[in-house]
Request: fold
Amino acid sequence: MSCLVVVVAFAGLYLLFREPFDRFNPWIEQEYVYVEVQNEPADDDGRYKYREQGVTESGETKRVVFTTSTRLDQGTPLKVLAKGTYTVEYTFINEDEMLSK
Reply:
């Protein structure tokens, strides 16, 4: 029973602190995710926080979370460098540079 409690506690902590964990985890590799902004951002202490689905260069669908200082228009194409759920950086790209899902 106590092992189950420990496992549940660690799983809860991982879900709560997933972004910082992914950022410093040496076994998670960085990869580019191509995203077209679809969702409304959430307020994040004066910044705009986006949670979007994108596609990797290998064709996998992946969720990314990133913040911006300005509100992005719906349909804005981005190339996001992600490490797990942590976003290292993002770059605005042209529509023709997007990968198809």
In short: Helices lie at 2-16, 18-24. The mean pLDDT is 85. The two ends are 44 Å apart (CA to CA).
